Each structure stands twice: as structure tokens, then as C-alpha cells.
Amino acid sequence: MKKFIYAASVLGTLVSGFASYANEVALRTTSEVYPIGKAYRAVKARDDYALMTRAYFNREDLVYEFAYKAEDGSMKEVVFDAVSGQTE
């Protein structure tokens, strides 16, 4: 239950943060914006994924920044380009 509540709060933060900047990002880029849902699912699909700890949309650099706890207890970070969807 704690994981569900935590995941819901993280996802809510992601959606609200992304929605407020989606139009601005779309206007500043010439191509389509990579969907945040795909980036979130890509992080959750990693073999060592255990728990999402942070999700952030960096408006200035146009990247999604995710931090998660791996199964071995270490903290990992993944950065997605919001335009191309490639990890950095």
C-alpha cells in the first residue's frame, strides 16, 4: 500500500509538472515532445528497478530526470531527452 501511495504521489507530481510546461516545450522545439509516460515506463522496466524516488522535468534543459532505488539498495539516475527520448 505504501508503494502505491508513493507511486501515485510521484506520478501526480510528474503529470502536473509536465502539463504546465508541455505547451511551452512544444513551441520551443520543432519536433514532437517525447511522452513522459513512455519515459516513466522505460525506467520501471529496467532489470534492477525497485522503487521510484524522484521524477523531475527540467524545463531549461528539456530533459526528464528520474532517480530510483535499485534492488541492491543503490540509488540510480536516468535522464531522458524530452525531444528525442534518448537517455543521456
What does this 3D model show about the protein?
By secondary structure, the chain is an alpha+beta fold. The chain has 2 helices and 3 strands. A 3-stranded antiparallel beta sheet has the order 1-2-3. A hairpin with a 4-residue loop joins β2 and β3. The protein starts with a helix and ends in a 7-residue tail after the last strand.
Please write out the topology:
Elements: H1 2-28, H2 36-44, E1 49-58, E2 63-70, E3 75-81
Antiparallel strand pairs: 1-2, 2-3
Short account of what is shown:
With about 90 residues, this protein is α+β, with helices and mostly antiparallel strands. Helix content is about 40%, strand content about 30%.
List low-pLDDT spans.
Answer: none
Total helices: the number is 2
> What's the rounded overall pLDDT mean?
80
Shape: globular
Give the termini separation. Answer: 33 Å
Describe the structure using short key phrases.
single chain; 3-stranded antiparallel β-sheet
